[in-house]
Design goal:
Number of helices: 9
Number of domains: 1
CATH class: Mainly Alpha
Shape: globular
Order of helices and strands: HHHHHHHHH
Structural class: mainly alpha
CATH architecture: Up-down Bundle
Strand content: under 5%
Helix content: over 70%
Radius of gyration: 17 Å
Largest sheet: none
CATH superfamily: Heme oxygenase-like
Length: 195
C-alpha cells in the first residue's frame, strides 16, 4: 500500500534528516496545488455524505474527521501570504468525479474510499505535513491536520460504523472492498505523488 511506503519513507527522512536533504525538496507552489486538489476531493466527499438519501451515509456525517474547512483555512492563509491559489488539477477533478459516480453506484465502494482517504491523511499525512512545515513553512501547523478530538479515535469510530454496516450489507458488496484498496491507491495516489 503506497501510503505505508510514504509513511516509512517520511519517518526515515525524519530520522536521517540530513542524509536525504537533496532527495526531497517540497515547494510552496506544489504544496498549494496538493491542498487545492485535496480541498476539492474533501468538499466532494463531505457533500456526498451530507446530501445523500442513502441511509448508509448517515453513519458517516459529522465524524469529526471532516477536513474541507481546515484546508480552506490553510489556503486562505497562503493567499494572505501572496501565494496564487490555482484551480484544481485534472487528477483532483477526475478523482472527485469518480467518487461521485461511485457514490451513485455503490455505498460500500464509496465508503471504502471515504475510509482510505481519511486513513491515509491520518497515518501518513501528518508525517509528511511535519516535514513540509519544517522545510517550507517555518514550522507552521496546518489546519488540515487538526481534528475535533484525537484523530485515531475518530477514525476508530468510523471503522466501527463500517464494520457494523458490513454486517448488514449484502455479501456481494463486501467482496469488492479488498480490490478497492488498490483502486484507491491508483486514484488518490495520482493526487499525492505527482507533485
Amino acid at each position: 500500500m503506497w501510503i505505508l511506503k510514504i509513511h516509512r519513507t517520511a519517518a526515515k527522512e525524519e530520522e536521517d534528516d540530513d542524509s536525504d536533504e537533496e532527495t526531497w525538496k517540497p515547494c510552496v507552489e506544489g504544496f498549494v496545488k496538493y491542498l487545492v486538489d485535496n480541498q476539492f476531493v474533501f468538499d466532494t466527499i463531505e457533500r456526498i455524505v451530507d446530501q445523500s438519501d442513502d441511509v448508509a451515509y448517515a453513519y458517516f456525517r459529522n465524524t469529526g474527521l471532516e477536513q474541507a474547512g481546515g484546508v480552506s483555512k490553510d489556503l486562505e492563509w497562503f493567499s494572505g501570504q501572496g501565494v496564487v491559489i490555482p484551480e484544481p488539477s485534472t487528477p483532483g477533478v477526475s478523482y472527485a468525479k469518480y467518487l461521485e459516480e461511485l457514490a451513485e453506484r455503490s455505498a460500500s465502494l464509496f465508503l471504502s474510499h471515504f475510509y482510505n482517504i481519511y486513513f491515509s491523511h491520518i497515518v501518513g499525512g501528518q508525517v509528511i505535513a511535519k516535514q513540509v512545515s519544517k522545510k517550507i513553512l517555518e514550522g507552521r501547523e496546518l489546519e488540515l491536520y487538526k481534528w475535533d478530538g484525537e484523530a485515531e479515535e475518530l477514525l476508530k469510530g468510523v471503522r466501527e460504523n463500517l464494520n457494523m454496516l458490513g454486517e448488514v450489507m449484502p455479501e456481494s458488496a463486501i467482496y469488492h472492498i479488498p480490490a478497492l484498496v488498490q483502486l484507491d491507491t491508483n486514484g488518490q495516489g495520482g493526487l499525492l505523488l505527482k507533485r
